[in-house]
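Fill in residues.
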């Protein structure tokens, strides 16, 4: 039977119309919790660099062209939704409303080389996130920290959406809100400085958000003096 782009949704997880089984594991080996689905290689290869490589005849993958393809250390719900998406099965309304779930999907789609899906999931994530953020930011400063940490987990993912101006603004919006809401506690929190300094762009913005840079502890000034001085004097130098 000739395959085409017009796959039917009913073809997903249909063993009679599949040539590979995808086994998803939460851990590093096949003893961990798992979930499996019957798929077709041609569908998975489309727009996905990772699956295209895995199912190529000259692939270096040990299980290339076999009947089973194993994926380890993955989110079961996220991968299931991603595989369904390859067949045109969109997430449910409940899933779409969950910004964390859509962020996972954008991450997974990018990881598996599907930039088109990554963009779509990112747009859904951003819309859902903005709705939650607008509703909670006046009354939930602690939630800003939780949101920030989840966003930063995906900062190193190399998909274009994260590197856009809008995305940078989103990250800084949440980060600066967190700093401003927790100013007095954070300015003496060594763990905070160690953690946030791992994200240079946001770190510089957070330093600038402190109302009195001179009030930073001496140890912090010694460790991050260059960044502090540039924040204090950089703009003046540019304007001089």
């Amino acid at each position: 039977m000739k395959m085409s782009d017009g796959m039917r949704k009913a073809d997903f997880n249909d063993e009679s119309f599949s040539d590979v089984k995808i086994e998803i594991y939460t851990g590093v080996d096949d003893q961990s919790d798992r979930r499996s689905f019957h798929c077709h290689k041609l569908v998975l290869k489309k727009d996905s660099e990772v699956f295209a490589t895995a199912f190529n005849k000259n692939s270096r993958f040990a299980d290339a062209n076999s009947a089973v393809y194993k994926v380890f250390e993955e989110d079961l719900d996220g991968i299931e939704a991603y595989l369904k998406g390859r067949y045109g099965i969109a997430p449910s309304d409940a899933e779409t409303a969950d910004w964390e779930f859509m962020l996972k999907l954008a991450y997974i789609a990018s990881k598996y080389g599907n930039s088109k899906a990554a963009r779509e999931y990112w747009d859904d994530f951003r819309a859902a996130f903005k709705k939650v953020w607008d509703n909670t930011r006046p009354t939930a400063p602690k939630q800003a920290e939780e949101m920030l940490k989840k966003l930063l987990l995906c900062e190193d993912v190399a998909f274009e959406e994260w590197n856009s101006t809008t995305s940078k603004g989103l990250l800084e919006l949440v980060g600066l809100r967190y700093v401003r809401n927790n100013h007095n506690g954070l300015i003496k929190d060594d763990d905070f400085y160690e953690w946030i300094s791992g994200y240079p762009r946001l770190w510089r913005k957070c330093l600038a958000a402190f109302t009195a840079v001179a009030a930073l502890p001496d140890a912090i000034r010694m460790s991050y003096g260059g960044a502090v001085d540039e924040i204090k004097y950089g703009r003046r130098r540019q304007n001089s």
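Residues 1-5, 227-240 have pLDDT under 50 and may be disordered.
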